[in-house]
Amino acid sequence: AVPLVVARSTALSAQHGLLIKNRTAFENSRKITSVVFDKTGTLTKGKFEVARVVLTGNTVANEDELIGLAGALEANSEHPIATGILSEVRKRGLTLLIADQFNALTGKGIEATVEQKSVKVVSPGYLKDNGLKLPENAGIAGNETVVFVLLNDQLAGFIALADAIRPESADAIATLHENGIRSILLTGDNQQVAESVSKQLKMDGFFAEVLPHQKLEKIKELQRQGGFIAMTGDGVNDAPALAQADIGIAVASGSDIAAETAGIVLVNSNPKDIVNLILFGKATYRKMM
Ligand code: ADP
Ligand code: MG
């Protein structure tokens, strides 16, 4: 039987934006020493808008051509970057070409064939790994997520996108601090954005350009260092890390896989509700003992 005090707290938790799928996770929430946060869609809104389109050389004729090629690929992706690029395609009134042989480069971008040409839309990390130099004018600004467009493996240009930090994120992290809990950022995005977001939110540290399987390894590493680690994320790529963490917390606006894997779901996608989780956990189990 469920102790009455726990049943009541579960109802209260629902009022505070928490879906408790796993009672042990709820019970253990009072032990959390660090919360690891995914960036995109978790601390930020996950709604990218194209801020700049830059051509490098003469591989394509103009910005519209670059956006059109990227859009042809992104029509096959559900990544928030894809949604941002496709809304730019609509704004510019472009007609999309058809992309064949679509292939996701997990955590690095996507590739496909468009009119017999190989096209890739990829991360700064992919360029580095393939010995391609970042263009001089890339000068990635603090808040920009940048993807590079390659045509037959030649750099044609890049697209800088901006995403907004959720208004509740700073408060969530400050309140965790007041309760002696550390916060760490774990993202597949570039170094500059990761550093900028973690500084703006006064977080305790960040890991950038982390591939999906490396997210899980980072959680293991933090667990080996000691402490009780919660992981918060929304993406398909966060699911293994959510499963590995001592407590997995999914953001409801994200993927179904993240929500299925996690013990707790933030129903209103508000990172501040993690604080409710920890305080409720403490209050509930204090009453029982
Ligand atoms: P995050 O931790 O922010 O969810 P991901 O692992 O999903 O990051 O992606 C990491 C990086 O891989 C992105 O910042 C981007 O550079 C690249 N990437 C992933 N998917 C796409 C896509 N559909 N189009 C372009 N770039 C992508
Ligand atoms: Mg995410």
Automatic annotation (TrEMBL):
<protein>
    <submittedName>
        <fullName>Copper-translocating P-type ATPase</fullName>
    </submittedName>
</protein>
<comment type="similarity">
    <text>Belongs to the cation transport ATPase (P-type) (TC 3.A.3) family. Type IB subfamily.</text>
</comment>
